[in-house]
Design goal:
With 477 residues, the chain is mainly alpha-helical. The chain contains 22 helices and no strands. The chain has four domains: 81 residues, no CATH class; 94 residues; 102 residues, no CATH class; 84 residues. 65% of the residues lie in helices and 0% in strands. The longest helix is centred in the middle third of the chain and has 25 residues.
Amino acid sequence: MSDLHWIEVQSIADRQGVSLLRGWRLRHEWTLIQVVDRLKEILGPSADGLSHQQVSKWERGVPPTPRYLRALCELYQTRPDRLGFGHDFTVGEVADPGGTQPGRKQRSDPQLKPGGRGAPHDSGEEPPSPRIPGEEDDMRRRNLLRSVFVSGLTAPIVSAMEQVRQSMERTLSSATVSAASLDQWEQTVTGYGLAYMTSPPLGQLQDMVLDFAEIQRLTALRQTTDIQRRLCHISAQLGVVIAMTMVDLGDYQQARGWFRTSRVAAEETEDRILRAWVTARESAIYLYYAQPVQRAVDLARQAQLMAAKPDSAVAVVAAALEARGWARLGAAAQAHQALRRAEEFFERLPVAATVNTPFGCGRQRFAFYLENTLAHLGDRRAPSMQQEALRLLGLGEIRDRLLVELDVATMWIRRGDVTEGVRHALRTILSAPADWRTGLINSRGEELYALIPEPRRCLPAARDLHTVLALPSGESL
């Protein structure tokens, strides 16, 4: 790697206040995941356990093992000291302002910290101030422009003005992230959305938050308008998936915060459909935890107005969520009206919009919305719709299957068969894998328990259900 590249890395690291190792990655416009993939290509099967969290630790100053340090040097085609680990003690004309550059004396400081830049010379002299690329040219242009008041608008001054204009134009049109990287980020968020439907909530939360932090860093840098808009779109979508995960885990205050952040990001995109998705998904908080439930209805109606188009997946979901809210409030007429609207919208959906993700409306999830509304209304059609939902839901879609089974138990209790309803709820919760016994499932179980008439709560199954619900999430008897 040339000295020009090395100087560029130092400039990035100094300007953004990051380590040299991260400076190399930013220069290449690579994500943490891309670095991991390239290191695995270099090291082969021995690097199978490497994660982007480990690479992030190295970039924060934690030294890698010798094997990984060699691989990093090979990846970036440089030396350990230029990655921020160790120091070059070569004697002779090999020194530079933070590593090596021909024509300057080598600095040596055995106490140089990993990732650090800048140490005194071993001769005790004050180190020269590092030269910022283009600084001398800038000074010459400044002096030349000042002379306009003395000598008038001469050709050199016009030339200097043109250079200033061109420099600003380059700044405005430059970006630190490529279109290919944005494509990959969009695919990553799509992957998180797909995994949300079948993965335990805690399974991917850490990775999502780490990736969100990386996107936030890119968003804070100077980008072109189009790239900034795409980054905000990615941020809003990923924030929604994180917020939905927090709803599953039972932390509705965190969920509200993430929805708020997603809403701000969505506003920056000027994408009406994305704003509608954020608003619709936020209504789930008020369906499960926070009062009043009327807030869920209001948000769902706002989302439908934002969507404007009845043939969009978000319009279907928002109408269905409105129906669920009305059903919880006991407003049967309004619930049935919203439900009919949701069914009409769903029939108009193009096939591409029926994917089962946080930003689509799969047939199996729509069936869950329908049965849940009917169950809360005590509608006699609920049992058949529950069986239809269970038939459509895959075995891996555990969250939705558990919620449907608890709705089945609810219908037993509403019809007066408290014993069977409580037993079914108890079997459902006890059969759930530990990592799916989340705050959401417990909250739904507590809501069901509240339906049991006071005199019937002395039933053995009711007492067992109360005991199970009192356990921390993920624990069993």
